[in-house]
DNA sequence: TCTTGACCTCGACTATAGCTGAGGTTCTAG
DNA sequence: CTAGAACCTCAGCTATAGTCGAGGTCAAGA
């Protein structure tokens, strides 16, 4: 009755992974997970899919968008079941990404805290307002896009 | 010519704050910023708006959604220009929020790192897979929503 | 065999955070 | 006073990450 070697239906995967069936459809549509179809067009998944879904969920917790998760998963060998080493490589690169995000948020928090004493967000003084503001102050002209890109480049 | 006491047009605000005019329209529509209208129905803003926009941008860098920024800004006194203390209160609460996010990401990063050695995401062993998985393993039933909520509650 | 739960596709809808363009009006400098 | 830059509204589009329901099909137990 409970044959652990059996393929999994969408419902099985949903129950075991904790995501909804519609989400699994969505992930498959986006190319994040794969499965075969029965003669009656129903999805059947190998056990690997549970690990894939787990990885997707964890990566999302880390704030990684699905398209990045997809390209990371695409680095895994597609002919064989990924090994411990394969997963470790993935984990390592995401760990670095996460560290970068932590550093960025920590810097922001420190600036927030220093700002409590600086008369928050005063022009030209507060680090939270600069360097963007220096540019904006420098004169008129079509610099909105430039500033925006600059801000994104600096902050992301 | 350059009268610093003059009210600002949308274009002025856009150039000085580095956000586009359409974004300012959007913020106004969402109730994040306010201004008066000329007899010809054009927007005019006081100087305060620059600080508001700056605060919005900084809060967004911290990952705070606009609706939360809106309710935080709504705490400010609406009859007078906010004081240093008013802004400091805001800054302090966001700093706490930021710290919570940092803690959460740091925990996740640590788990990622320990996972490099644990045969990443192995069932029942890896902290990244649990506690969700323990629930999923425990049997069938309509627990998808429960699991999802549980996961969100625990992780967010 | 039959019934019922699980499955299928497809389109529409949610929320967030905007951007773009059409068609028309206002403001301001020369 | 007029030309052109800047402004207005409104509708529709982008992307991310899904959810929901309609209408129809499949599969497995009694």
From TrEMBL, chains A, B:
The keyword Nucleus does not apply. Keywords: 2Fe-2S, DNA-binding, Iron, Iron-sulfur, Metal-binding. GO terms for molecular function: 2 iron, 2 sulfur cluster binding; DNA binding; DNA-binding transcription factor activity; metal ion binding. It comes from the Bacteria. Gene3D superfamilies: 1.10.1660.10. Pfam families: MerR_1. Residues 7-75 form the HTH merR-type domain. GO terms for biological process: response to oxidative stress. The keyword Metal-binding applies. This is Redox-sensitive transcriptional activator SoxR. The lineage of its organism: Bacteria, Pseudomonadati, Pseudomonadota, Alphaproteobacteria, Sphingomonadales.
């Amino acid at each position: 009755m409970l044959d652990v070697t059996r393929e999994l239906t969408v419902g099985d995967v949903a129950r075991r992974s904790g995501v909804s069936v519609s989400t699994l459809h969505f992930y498959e549509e986006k190319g994040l997970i794969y499965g075969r179809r029965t003669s009656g067009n129903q999805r059947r998944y190998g056990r690997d899919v549970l690990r894939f879904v787990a990885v997707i969920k964890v990566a999302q917790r880390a704030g990684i968008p699905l398209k990045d998760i997809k390209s990371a998963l695409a680095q895994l060998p597609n002919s064989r079941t990924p090994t411990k080493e394969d997963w470790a490589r993935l984990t390592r690169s995401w760990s670095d990404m996460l560290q970068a995000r932590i550093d960025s948020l920590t810097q922001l928090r420190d600036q927030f805290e220093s700002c409590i004493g600086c008369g928050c967000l005063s022009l030209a003084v507060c680090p939270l307002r600069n360097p963007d503001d220096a540019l904006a102050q420098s004169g008129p002209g079509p610099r909105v896009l430039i500033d925006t890109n600059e801000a994104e480049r600096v902050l992301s």
